[in-house]
Amino acid sequence: MESKIAMDTLFHRYSRSILLSLSLLISPFIAAHSIDDAQALKVKGGQPIADDSQPWQVSLQDMGQHFCGGSLVAPQWVMTAAHCVEDYDNDPATLESLDIRVGVTDLSDTSQGAYAEAAAIFVPTWWEGEGDIALIKLKEPITDIPYLPPADERTMRESGYEGAMATVSGWGATDEESAGLPNVMHTVNVPIAPWYFCAMFNGENGDLSENEICAGYIDGGKDACYGDSGGPLIIKHRGRAVQAGIVSWGSGCGQPYKYGVYSRVASFSDWLRSTIKNNSD
């Protein structure tokens, strides 16, 4: 299994790798979710966000450099990928090096959003190979920025079905060959792919867990990329944004016949609820 890191912080932290190798498979799903427009195929990192439509988006930074994404899922809690924080522990000296920015669109604008500090990090002891998820408790709650509710099983049945459109966002590379990361958040829409497509054709990267979901186009072209790890995959449920996935792993960015792989948030509903309940002030 390959994971990608933000190019500007190579020696600091793991970041996103996204896309699972797939073989060419002809099906109604593929036909309905192919990109025929040549221009669309050029948009690997999506389009810059023009407003504050993703206020819950989090930038995790080390020494002022963005390396992973995350999301504010409760006033005092950030959800991200476990591999983003595996080099941190709960020693205060270590946590001090983790910078958290919430509610910001342009990272170069220091006046945007809120700055937060980590109080503790929680990762399931069984996460590796079973789900790439972590919670960061903040020292102080953020009450003036909306949070993004995690999807549960009922929500996924109703709105997170195969073929449903989802949105992924972050400050990751806009192209696989990009040497740097953008300051302005980008967003891209991708359909949720059938789980068995990934499970059947991911031999070179290891087995796909039932705690993971895939999203993207069979033609490639639109996807998360380096630096997007930990960020949210969002679906609409009854008119409200909810988080269905966490950018996790894969190979390359926007390549044909390869989907992005995300931790399936609903699979961790019990862990999320109990961790927040048992560790809240």
Give an account of the 3D structure.
The protein has 281 residues and is mainly beta. It has 2 domains: 7-51 and 150-266, Thrombin, subunit H; 57-147 and 268-278, Trypsin-like serine proteases (Thrombin, subunit H), CATH 2.40.10.10. The protein has 5 helices and 14 strands. The strands form 2 sheets. The protein has a 6-stranded antiparallel barrel with strand order 9-10-11-14-13-12. A 6-stranded antiparallel β-barrel has the order 3-4-5-8-7-6. β3 and β4 (65-74) form a beta hairpin. It is globular.
Content of β-strand: 25-35%
Main β-sheet, spatial strand arrangement = 9-10-11-14-13-12
- What is the top-level CATH class of the largest domain? Mainly Beta
The overall pLDDT average reads: 81
Please identify the structural class as seen in this structure.
mainly beta
Which term fits the overall shape?
globular
Supply the CATH architecture of the largest domain. Answer: Beta Barrel
Q: How far is the first residue's CA from the last residue's CA?
A: 37 Å
CATH homologous superfamily assignment of the largest domain: Trypsin-like serine proteases
**Would you give the CATH topology of the largest domain?**
Thrombin, subunit H
Compute the CA-based radius of gyration: 17 Å
User: Number of DSSP helices?
Assistant: 5
Extract low-pLDDT stretches. Answer: 7-43
Main sheet: strands, sense, barrel: 6 strands, antiparallel, barrel
- Our count of domains comes out at 2
Give the SSE string.
EHEEEEHEEEHEEHEEEEH
Count of individual beta strands: 14
The level of helicity is 10-25%
